[in-house]
From TrEMBL:
Organism: marine sediment metagenome
Pfam family, one: HIRAN
InterPro entries: HIRAN
Protein name as it appears in the record: HIRAN domain-containing protein
MF annotations from Gene Ontology: hydrolase activity, acting on acid anhydrides, in phosphorus-containing anhydrides; nucleic acid binding; zinc ion binding
UniProt key word Hydrolase: yes
Keywords of the record: Hydrolase, Metal-binding
Sequence ranges assigned to domain HIRAN in this UniProt record: 1-99
Length: 103
């Protein structure tokens, strides 16, 4: 399994997102949702905590994460340990083909 440590982009543009993130514990999990209709980046991936859109996967990783989502290779997305602001995340990927399929 591979993973990326990164941050949640665009938090300052999401009303209430900073407060939500600051209140989460280190075990907090996030959902990643492709947003192909995004006019700024057709590979955009929203980061959700429950019903709250808290930001985006940074543009330099969005194409890779979008492909991994379409291939069902994203295992989890969680808060990065030690992230005081709550904007640090880890995205974990499974290897090979579609999640659950043999390589």
């Amino acid at each position: 399994m591979t993973h990326h440590q990164t941050y949640i982009a665009g938090v300052k543009f999401r009303p209430g997102a900073a407060e939500i993130l600051a209140g989460l514990d280190e075990a907090a999990a996030f959902d990643l949702v492709p947003e192909p209709q995004n006019i700024h980046d057709t590979n955009a991936v929203k980061i959700m905590h429950g019903d709250h859109h808290v930001g985006y996967v940074p543009r330099d990783l969005s194409a890779e994460v979008s492909r991994a989502l379409s291939d069902n290779r994203v295992d989890k997305c969680c808060r990065r340990a030690g992230s005081k602001s709550g904007t640090g995340i880890e995205i974990h990927f499974t290897e090979g083909g579609r999640h659950g399929d043999p390589d």
